[in-house]
Amino acid sequence: MKRMRWYDLLAVNLFWLGLNIRNNAVGTIFTPYLVDRFVSSDIRNTALGELRTAGLIIAMLVQPAMGLLSDRCQARMGRRRPFILVGVLFDLAFLALIALSANFWMLVLATLLIQFSANVSHGALQGLIPDLVPEDQRGVASAVKAILELLPMILLGFTIAPLVGAGKFGLAVAVTGALLLLLMLLTLLLVKETPLETPPDTPLAPTMLRVLGMLAGIVGGAVAGLIAGGVIGVLSGAVAWALGGREIGLIVGVSVGGVIVMASAVVAGVWAGTLATIGPEVRRTPAFVWWVVNRLMFLAAITSVQSFAPFFMMYAFGVTRERAAAMTGSLMIAVGVFTLISALPGGWLADRLGDKRLVAASGLLAVFGTAILLTSVLSPQLWIIYVAGAVLGLAAGLFMTTNWSLGTRLAPEAEAGRYLGISNLAGAGAGMIGTGIGGPIADYLNARLPGLGYLVLFGGYGVLFLLSVVSLRGVRREEVKREA
Predict the structure, then answer these.
(1) Integer-rounded Cα radius of gyration of the chain
(2) Under 8 Å CB-to-CB from 328, ≥6 apart: which residues?
(3) What is the pLDDT of residues 170-208, one digit of tens each?
(4) Domains of the chain by range and CATH?
(5) What pTM did the predictor assign?
(6) Which of helix, strand or coil describes residue 320?
């Protein structure tokens, strides 16, 4: 491969900026805003959680399929750019459908459709760095990719969120589409691909069956988590009922059981998913499986805090959905800045202090940030939320850099792609577990005592952060290659 100049590395990664502008705008701003418009306040957390779960199931199926199809594409434009083009054209149509949604079911349809189109481009985009960047420049290229993935949090706080806050929802959607279109066109213009002459002979069907196995693992894990959480919730609720009465018993049972459901679903889902996807040989690398558990625990908590932020703002400060969107945008700026601050030196620190230590540090830092956030539930003050966001941003930036580095050291070198592909289990499973399970818990408890649902929910996410640190005990030093 020809050595790349700095602007070539930027061009190869440029669409990551567009992809994450779209994802963050739709997931963090547009969807909560419309859910609150279309459903009553007592079920909005549940509606958001189930909507995200349905969309992520589509993502888990479409993204790897499009990656495999792009591997085989022999178009004159190259392998990846045709999929990026087609995905964005459909994105624009489905963004318009989101803007025109008149009820919740139209929003559901638009969400499922844009999850399909978004992952058409996403699945192909992941192949650009391996296709075009020389081996000795992939570390730098990945760093550029990470920066462009994080920047949208700051950019949306200055652009899209204020537009929604000003009541200009249609304009906010249009600006999102325009930015997406611009970055897609720049990618088509600046990235040079050579047409594929001979497609790979790897069969498509077995890989897709492994994806279905991953999805089955998540579902099986959720069922196992429900059983474990249900049993412990009933037992703890019965004790509380006997000591404090029926209402206390129900609250304690749902609270304790809900947290156990989320934690159990992570562990059971990861083990079932890795066994279904990789096979029995994964038992020879238990440290790798515990790495996935660590990743899913942390991501389930951090992404869910972000998802429920607009609804929490509306509860805590009694503001409209428009004002909550603007406040969420300001919070995204703070979180994004501190995420970048810790992400940029994270790799350098990992090489000197060790990945595992810094992953553990990021989990403990997130626990501290969640503790600060809990005080804002008890005594709502905006400055406390910003401080909590800053601390969680530092934790997230450090985690995103060092956790992935740790995973690359744990995966068998001869099968790194196969093993690291299981990280999709953590990415998609995070939203399915964190919001899909957390949403109904929040609504049920809020109905019994206003604010209790958010107190338990954020407390539960704090427990997940702590358990992400505990899970690192399964990652033994002798199994971590090249760690300091």
Answers:
(1) 22
(2) 28, 29, 32, 161, 309, 310, 313
(3) 999 999 999 999 999 999 999 988 887 776 666 767 766
(4) 1-190 (1.20.1250.20), 204-484 (1.20.1250.20)
(5) 0.85
(6) coil
